[in-house]
């Protein structure tokens, strides 16, 4: 069955919902928001591991146009953030546009009609199929297999991707993993029915996710082996309850909430001076992190193990008050010898030492360098987006890609942050896309495609700035690809990005008019 919509948005996180809200505000109603999951919230619905919370203050990590006086903590827990996003979807009457349980298998640009064909299937059926075939999300599907769910197509003039860069889980490739006889799951795919009591648990990874769930698992598990490849820099988390009186004040006097939000914004923004300007400033952060280790861990050997040897800020700086105390517990071992193989119910380290394990939890992060799977987005001439990105993902203002007309990305290449709230960046991009749509309508353009040289010049200037940043000081992180190119982070103040995305700069685009007789409005999807 073929359906149509003017705009197809992929994802219902901050990006997809924010885009929907702003489209409605601009008078657009003919759009659809496709969500693979069974509820809205994006990463805040998908990630529900114990301890999951935001590491940016909630007063800032929320929409500027929908500030929430009711956050119960400085750093809200996952459940509260997901509930906030759901309430936004309902308040702005977005649910009628949202198609839940809808997996986007592909999107292909049709040069004749200058529009997109989006291919979808029922994500529940796809999940069952993957389970049967032992496939992980992101694994390539064999399209000839008769057991695959049924795919259907619909047309959209414009596609806006709000998929985020951290949605496809990364699994380690370890010899013998397929022989493991126990339970295993990724942090994004938490099994809350699994009881850790009396179990020997192995956790692989010590990133932002693991440092949040390790303390929770360590409370229940008989034993926890933490396989650490690289210790992260961790500073204290300035978290606390937001008292009922404070919440009442925020409700009664919204300007106080806004002032609080602004103060957080400028405090975080100051960090850019260290990240991009002069990494030596970050020595202050390093001293704070070293003191944190000394304060929370008595054992010298454990202190040594968890102390990073790379520049503070090169990888994401983490915040936690309960991670180090959890590592110091008697039932937790931090193992740094690496994993050679898995054999039955044993993990064998690189020294040949075997350790029995009932459950392996992968805290191994996401495929940030391939934010869009191969074979998913095909632009002009059928080109796969991943082929266009052979040298590393890049876009113009993180939003548009040469060869992919009418395709906009939110949280696209080099829009990520190491210092502040992504919601600010998302709102900047949404403003840019809405302005593009308005200009397309005003001038009768059927398609807009960023010019190759505009994209190249933009990226040359970004990478010149990134060259001096702390992220290029030699550590290995998901910010940087295997060729050393930082494809993920924005190298500057966030207000500079906002200035750049204030208006759709049509001069940098090839704008094609609507062909004669082809200008009729597409019927709404129902
Ligand atoms: P991550 O930061 O990429 O961490 C992955 C961890 O797994 C690292 O410690 C990595 O070690 C380790 N690892 C990966 N492959 C391995 C292998 N084959 N063998 C051994 N260890 C391996 O992933 P994440 O913790 O899921 O976080 C990803 C991002 O999500 C964060 O940086 C952040 O942007 C976001 N996040 C945000 C929040 C929040 O509060 N807002 C919470 C969670 C996550 P190496 O360091 O050696 O590579």
Automatic annotation (TrEMBL):
Source species of the chain: Marinobacter algicola DG893
GO MF annotations, alphabetized: flavin adenine dinucleotide binding; N,N-dimethylaniline monooxygenase activity; NADP binding
Record has tRNA-binding as a keyword: no
Family annotation (Gene3D superfamilies): FAD/NAD(P)-binding domain
Record keywords: FAD, Flavoprotein, Monooxygenase, Oxidoreductase
Cross-referenced Pfam families: FMO-like (PF00743), NAD_binding_8 (PF13450)
Protein name: Probable flavin-containing monooxygenase
Domain of life: Bacteria
């Amino acid at each position: 069955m073929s359906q149509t919509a003017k705009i197809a948005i992929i994802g219902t996180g901050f990006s997809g919902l924010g885009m929907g809200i702003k489209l409605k505000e601009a008078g657009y109603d003919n759009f659809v928001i496709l969500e693979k999951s069974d509820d809205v919230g994006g990463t805040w619905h998908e990630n529900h591991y114990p301890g999951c919370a935001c590491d940016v203050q909630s007063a800032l990590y929320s929409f500027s146009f929908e500030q929430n006086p009711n956050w119960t903590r400085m750093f809200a827990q996952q459940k509260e953030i997901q509930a906030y996003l759901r309430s936004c979807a309902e308040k702005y009457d977005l649910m009628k546009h949202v198609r839940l349980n809808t997996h986007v298998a592909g999107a292909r640009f049709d040069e004749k009609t200058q529009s997109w064909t989006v291919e979808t299937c029922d994500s529940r059926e796809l999940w069952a199929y993957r389970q049967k075939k032992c496939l992980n999300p992101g694994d390539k599907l064999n399209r000839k297999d008769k057991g695959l769910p049924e795919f259907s197509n619909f047309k959209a003039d414009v596609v806006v991707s709000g998929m985020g860069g951290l949605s496809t889980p990364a699994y380690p490739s370890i010899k013998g993993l397929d022989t493991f006889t126990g339970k295993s799951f990724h942090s994004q795919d938490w099994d809350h029915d699994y009881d850790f009591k009396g179990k020997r648990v192995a956790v692989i990874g010590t990133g932002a996710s693991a440092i949040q769930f390790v303390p929770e698992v360590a409370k229940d598990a008989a034993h926890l082996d933490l396989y650490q490849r690289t210790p992260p820099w961790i500073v204290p988390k300035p978290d606390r309850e937001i008292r009922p009186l404070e919440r009442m004040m925020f409700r009664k006097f919204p300007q106080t909430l806004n002032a609080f939000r602004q103060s957080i914004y400028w405090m975080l923004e100051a960090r850019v001076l260290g990240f991009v300007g002069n990494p030596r400033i970050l020595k202050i952060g390093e001293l704070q992190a070293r003191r944190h280790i000394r304060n929370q861990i008595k054992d010298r050997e454990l202190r040594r193990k968890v102390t990073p040897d790379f520049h503070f800020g090169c990888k994401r700086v983490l915040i936690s008050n309960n991670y180090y105390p959890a590592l110091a517990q008697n039932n937790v071992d931090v193992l740094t010898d690496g994993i050679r193989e898995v054999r039955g119910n044993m993990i064998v380290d690189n020294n040949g030492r075997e350790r029995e394990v009932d459950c392996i939890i992968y805290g191994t992060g996401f495929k940030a360098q391939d934010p869009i799977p191969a074979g998913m987005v095909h632009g002009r001439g059928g080109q796969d987006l991943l082929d266009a990105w052979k040298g590393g993902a890049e876009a113009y203002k993180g939003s548009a890609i040469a060869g992919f007309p009418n395709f906009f990305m939110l949280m696209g290449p080099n829009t990520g942050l190491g210092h502040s709230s992504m919601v600010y960046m998302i709102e900047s991009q949404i403003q840019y896309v809405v302005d593009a749509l308005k200009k397309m309508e005003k001038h009768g353009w059927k398609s807009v495609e960023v010019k190759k040289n505009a994209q190249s010049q933009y990226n040359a200037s970004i990478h010149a700035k990134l060259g001096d940043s702390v992220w290029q000081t030699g550590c290995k992180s998901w910010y940087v690809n295997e060729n050393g190119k930082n494809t993920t982070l924005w190298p500057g103040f966030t207000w500079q990005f906002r200035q750049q995305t204030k208006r759709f700069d049509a001069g940098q685009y090839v704008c094609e008019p609507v062909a004669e007789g082809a200008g009729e409005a597409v019927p709404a999807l129902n």
